[in-house]
Amino acid sequence: MISTKPSSKPSNPNFSSGPCAKRPGWDISVLKNSQIGRSHRSKECKDKLKQTIVKSKQVLKLPDSYSLAIMAGSNTGALESALWSLLGYKGVDVLAWENFGKDWAIDVLEQLKIENVNTHKADYGNLPDLKKVNFNNDVVFAWNGTTSGVRVPDAKWIPDNREGLTISDATSGIFAMDIDFKKLDVITWSWQKVLGGEASHGMLALSPRALKRLETYTPKWPIPKLFRLANKKKLIKGIFEGATINTPSMICVEDVLDSLNWVESVGGTVELIKISNENLKIVEDWVNNSDWIRFMCENKNIRSSTSITLLIKDKWFNKFSEEEQRNVIKKIVSTLDKEGVAKDIIGYPKAPPSLRLWGGATVQNNDMKALLPWIDWAYNSVKNNV
């Protein structure tokens, strides 16, 4: 463990898991052409919104048959719109192994009050048994658990001949992980995660099977306007062409277009996946040589490369109560913040006391390498002064 303060700092100290670091080289000047002060219904703004949809599909290589919309309320708004508009036709299986999965389960059980529900739970750091999922039902799950650092291994566990819809919160996985989109009927994400865009806007991708559900089924509950994708079994097509349900920020639209252009300039999602995987490998090599820290997710096959979540295994630390452990974590994070080395790396409040490093592609590999000796030093400093 390092007791001497390191001399080299990350060039960018932003390791937050959302909103995440801006792309390398980002500057406020990229927003100079944004259509501020204009109606989002004007031709110029609708063109920008449509361009965002088209370019997102191109960069991700989404199937041509999938429809894509810009939604209010970030990934949460996009996912909620899918739940409220699509569920109730069949029973539902919900996977919950971290905070947001648990939130979706609450929505299904307590808000929509669907009766035939199977909830597949697991503790932080683990994954439920995927073999027990009933694909005769609609299935709701997160591709990557942002608050636990656990992801599904792949899409092989999802059958091609499923009867229900697969609804995936993919916000901290998409653009950074290899995803077989054809196995997913609903895919949601936000601009503020892997792309490093600004917050508040989400994306909703629907397969032909999901679109058919909207055109043949109306839920028994009233659907709030913000979540309404169809009207009397008729798809509101404008939503998928840039006519957003509510007023979008054209500054955010300009920013995400810059992010998408950056993805293309570095080699597409293949390169983003490579950068993220290398960030994880850098942390794995460090953890393997450490005597005080470990991953929350010990199974390498389901370990996240974006929301890299770490627990302290040192006996000294584990003699404390949970409240005392959280205070130690806060001191480590505060020490690194004051040094200008790392911002916002404390674990999710409802997760076990932990550190969480964003490893998406907007975090450069050299910055991840530079950070880790500082974490060793900060832990040692706090340990010697408690």
Q: Give the distance, in angstroms, between the N- and C-terminal Cα atoms.
A: 17 Å
Provide the succession of SSEs.
HEHEHEEEEEEEHEEHHEEHHEH
What is the count of structural domains? 2
| Annotated CATH homologous superfamily of the largest domain | Type I PLP-dependent aspartate aminotransferase-like (Major domain)
CATH class of the largest domain: Alpha Beta
Range of strand content:
5-15%
Please tally the β strands and state the result: 14
Helix content: 25-40%
CATH architecture of the largest domain: 3-Layer(aba) Sandwich
Commentary on this structure:
With 386 residues, the chain is of the alpha/beta class. It folds into two domains: 38-265, Aspartate Aminotransferase, domain 2 (3-Layer(aba) Sandwich), CATH 3.40.640.10; 268-383, Alpha-Beta Complex (Aspartate Aminotransferase, domain 1), CATH 3.90.1150. The protein contains nine helices and 14 strands. Helix 6 packs parallel to helix 9. It is globular, with a radius of gyration of 21 Å.
Provide a brief overview of the structure.
With 386 residues, this protein is an alpha/beta fold. The chain is 34% helix and 15% strand. The chain folds into 2 domains: 38-265, 3-Layer(aba) Sandwich (Aspartate Aminotransferase, domain 2); 268-383, Aspartate Aminotransferase, domain 1, CATH 3.90.1150.10.
